[in-house]
Amino acid sequence: MRFTKMQGAGNDYVYIDCFREKRPADPAKLSVAVSDRHFGIGADGLILICPSERADARMQMFNADGSESEMCGNGLRCVAKYVFDHGLAAKEKLAIETGRGILHVELEVKVGKAQRVRVNMGAPILMAEKIPTTLAGNPPVDVPLPVGDMTLNVTCVSMGNPHCVTFVEAITDQHVHQMGPKIENHAAFPRRTNVEFVKVNSRNDVTMRVWERGSGETLACGTGACGVCVAGVLTGRTDRRIVVHLLGGDLDLFWSETDNHVYMTGPAIEVFSGDWPNDDKATK
Known about the structure:
By secondary structure, this protein is α+β, with helices and mostly antiparallel strands. The protein has helices at 27-35, 73-85, 173-184, 222-234, and strands at residues 2-8, 11-17, 45-50, 57-63, 68-69, 93-98, 101-110, 113-120, 143-147, 150-158, 162-167, 194-202, 205-212, 216-218, 241-246, 249-255, 262-267, 269-275. The chain has an 18-stranded mixed β-sheet that branches. β9 and β10 form a beta hairpin. The protein is globular, with a radius of gyration of 18 Å.
């Protein structure tokens, strides 16, 4: 089975072109195998690029633990680049079907290849029951969340997948590696949640680290950066247009007052391609 490794701001996935390859029989199991950084290819998960009856392509994503997720902003940018660069749709404005619905992207093309991708991520979901969370507020804004022997003030939004954002004076490994998994699996989040720890540098500049649901800490999270942009505005900490610095690079975010949509712009890079064996041993 042919695969392509791609990354957006360091958020890396293994991509399968299901236009040309047979769809894996058990993509959840395959995601666990290929994501392993010692015995597999090494990735934050698996993304299938599939034909769509409603758009130029459809993406289906699985986290490193095999769980399926609704959306991945960095993954979506890479899907758009792959679709254009590999001739699945030869146009610079694409529609990609996702678990969030159909999202529209614009490509910055140089020498026939997509370099950066701007994604209309749609309107944030702010109703608590739809995020989903049991915390109070629509959405919960700076509400206290007990985590072990500490209490954090958190703001919750959804960009098609749930996000819990907390603003801190300094981001530490203790925040990410100890509190991250506790918040991910907190009872206040019935479908678990992604967790973003954010330091505000100025009204248009923030630094962020993320604990992703089903994958642990990753170098970047596109939907998480969108959630941070929304949370920054809701809490009065930032403007609607910000740069988000992640471990893997920078993303440009804009929450428009005109249409209420969040726009994300960032890189998409193809790393390498190869062949994954189709025998059962490769997915055990």
